[in-house]
TrEMBL record:
Residue ranges of domain Insertion element IS150 protein InsJ-like helix-turn-helix in the record: 9-54
Entry protein name: Insertion element IS150 protein InsJ-like helix-turn-helix domain-containing protein
Coiled-coil stretches: none
Cross-referenced InterPro entries: Homeodomain-like_sf, InsJ-like_HTH, WH-like_DNA-bd_sf
Superkingdom of origin: Bacteria
Organism: Lactobacillus bombicola
Gene3D superfamilies: Winged helix-like DNA-binding domain superfamily/Winged helix DNA-binding domain
Alphabetical list of SUPFAM superfamilies matching this protein: Homeodomain-like (SSF46689)
Length: 66
């Protein structure tokens, strides 16, 4: 199970798009790592909502390794 829900990830991306810094998002949503937020933002920008789903990320990694 993912540490953070899809809802939380989408909320973080939404806050970022509304101008919040990653530090502000981290504090507001009680997220332990700003690197996680950066990753969610990048995945969302590249793949949309499906880029934030755990199953998609695992499949993408396997494809890139082959």
């Amino acid at each position: 199970m993912s540490k953070y829900s899809l809802k939380t990830k989408l909320e973080a991306v939404d806050l970022y798009q509304r101008g919040f810094s990653t530090k502000e998002i981290q504090e507001k949503l009680h997220i332990t790592s700003r690197r996680s937020i950066d990753g969610w933002i990048n995945n969302y920008q590249q793949y949309g909502n499906r880029g934030l789903k755990k199953a998609f990320l695992r499949q993408d990694i396997v494809v890139n390794l082959n």
